[in-house]
Amino acid sequence: MTGPGDRPVEAVVFDLGGVLIDWNPRYLYRRLFDGDVPAMEAFLREVCTPEWNARQDAGRPWAEAVAELSARHPEARDLIAAYDERWEEMLGGPIEGTVEVLRDLRAANVALYALSNWSAAKYAIARPRYPFLGWFRDVVISGEVGVIKPDPSIFRLMLARNRLDPARTAYVDDSDPNVRVAEGLGMIAIRFRSPGALRSDLARLGLLAADAGSTAPVRPAAGP
């Protein structure tokens, strides 16, 4: 984590998957492979790869993605289609400890934002399931803007769209490449490891009390 020096932190930008929301394709594919973990892992490594999924996060339509991959792997057509048709079954619950941190930041009038790699169509499905997504002043979704992290341009878009000063903005992500880009742009970069560690990091920035379950003194709301 990099610190802000004497300049107060005015906003916190959160990644979503792996930080606030538990998403994992294995929740679905363990069932589809009837517990055959090696076969499932081979499929997710060689067919429906993270790189393939990332193209949907960048805006490629799901119908196009499924058709193209099914043509290359006709033997796995149904399994490939399930990635789209049964995507909701990959969603776990909220990461409760981080949601509690988010709740405390909100109570302290810290300006909250989200920046996430996510298909626009799938985010629309997830949005109603997690009420805390309504706590953010703005949510930048890669599939809606056509560029994915760690491309610096999506970070710049978030900062510009919300008139955020990088030096006064903390950024929380579980991906090292994303954290490095945020740091390179002058943001206060926090590598997410656990809700408890995040609370400690934010306490060092003066945003929260260090003890779980307690809130920091109410701060004036940050800018618009």
The share of residues in extended strands comes to: 5-15%
Q: Quickly count the domains.
A: 2
Shape: globular
CATH homologous superfamily (4th level) name of the largest domain: HAD superfamily/HAD-like
Strand order of the largest sheet: 5-4-1-6-7
Q: Which residues sit in consecutive blocks of at least 5 with pLDDT less than 50?
A: 212-224
Which CATH class of the largest domain? Answer: Alpha Beta
Gross CATH architecture of the largest domain: 3-Layer(aba) Sandwich
Could you tell me how far the N terminus lies from the C terminus, measured between alpha carbons in angstroms?
Answer: 26 Å
**How many extended strands?**
7
- Estimate the helix proportion, in percent: 40-55%
**Mean pLDDT level:** 92
Structural class, please?
Answer: alpha/beta
Can you tag this structure with a few keywords?
alpha/beta; Rossmann fold; 43% helix; 224 residues; 7 strands; globular
Describe the 3D structure:
This protein is an alpha/beta fold. It folds into two domains: about 10-20 and about 95-205, Rossmann fold; about 25-90, no CATH class. About 45% of the residues lie in helices and about 15% in strands. It is built from eleven helices and seven strands. It has helices at about 25-30, 35-45, 50-55, 60-70, 75-85, 95-105, 120-125, 140-145, 150-160, 175-185, 195-205, and strands at about 10-15, 20-25, 90-95, 110-115, 140, 170-175, 190. Strands 5-4-1-6-7 form a five-stranded parallel sheet, sandwiched between helices. Strands 2-3 form a two-stranded antiparallel ribbon. Helix 7 (about 120-125) links the parallel strand 4 (about 110-115) and strand 5. Helix 4 (about 60-70) packs antiparallel against helix 5 and helix 6 packs parallel to helix 11. It is globular, with a radius of gyration of 19 Å.
